[in-house]
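Technical note accompanying the year-one report. For the benefit of new consortium partners, we illustrate the data format agreed upon in the data management plan: each record pairs a sequence with a structure-token string. No post-processing was applied to the example shown here.
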Amino acid sequence: MRSHLKLAMPLAVAALALGACGTTGGSSSTPAAGGSGGASSAAACDLKIGMFGALTGPNANLGIYIQNGVNLALDDYNAKHPDCKVALANYDSQGDPTQAPALAKNAIDDKKVVGIVGPAFSGESKAADPLFNEAGLVTITPSATNPALADNGWKTFFRALGNDSTQGPAAAKYIKDTLKSSKPFVIDDASEYGKGLADIVRQDLGSAVVGNDTIQQKQTDFGATVTKVTSSGADAVFFGGYSPEAAPMIKQLRDAGWKGTFVVADGVKDQSYLDNAGDAAEGTIITCPCVPADVAPEFQAAYKKKFNEDPNTYSGEGYDSATILLNGIGAGKTRETMVDWVKSYDEKGVTKQLKFDDKGESADVKVFAYKVESGKIVSAGEIK
């Protein structure tokens, strides 16, 4: 997960990522980024893409998973363009929305940056994206899922996955139909992401919800919440939030004797949850609009060869987001023309068909369930 880049990427994935970009956007005259006649124009050389998200701090794992995918896409592109390489500019937000505006300004001021993968979290997206929109710097988030982000009229906003308006109902459906829960309890962490998602789950579960609670990020003592859950008779708990709070929460619930099913979402699909919750994590259900690693075997093999582990949460989405931008650079796009390139993009990626609607939302959306079994997060299939 925290590995540094050492190995070259297999040609199979290189062909997958760059082979068809000459027809992207409907222009047959656009040169293919990786083809023999598709050398980038001089204007497209010496450029950068940005990675905006938590690379340090309590939520760093999710950012690192994305960054690994981005770096894999860069390896692919640069191997095909050795005389015109693209560099990566990292903007480490630590997942803190208060740091986002200054980092966005840094990216905007670097005129070599022609596109951003991220911001990775919904709160920092809300803070940074107005600045990116004003500057005309395109962003493709591989992981920020708050639905309202697409409702601001930002011309530069694109999302390479489904939002919580899809994930929330899917989580509620799983709780009702698969778990057969009759007494669900819903908790959120008051964040832009966690509360937004939990509120959708609350709405979809309706009158079946036997209790609600709100905790705070960085909280460690969940005694009051545990009391509310156990006294309610809840047979399932949904938590909208991140792994640093989910791990001690489930440990304290189990220590109090609660036997129900803990259901969480993509913000908890992180190795740190397993490490910090230990045996208490067993049986946890995780929903995520992210595809299982084995959906794209060639990408899985390339990633595992480089990082000695399978792709993790949003690694594939990070790869796809970066590939869209890199294909644009290969076709001679600049910061000023990249928005239209992304808007009209329609190619198969490693996670899905990469295409966006008029609000920048992914046109191909799926939500999967995962389960913690024997100390590992394993796929439990798509939630239809």
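Partners are asked to follow this layout when depositing records. The domain at 165-288 is CATH 3.40.50.2300 (Rossmann fold).
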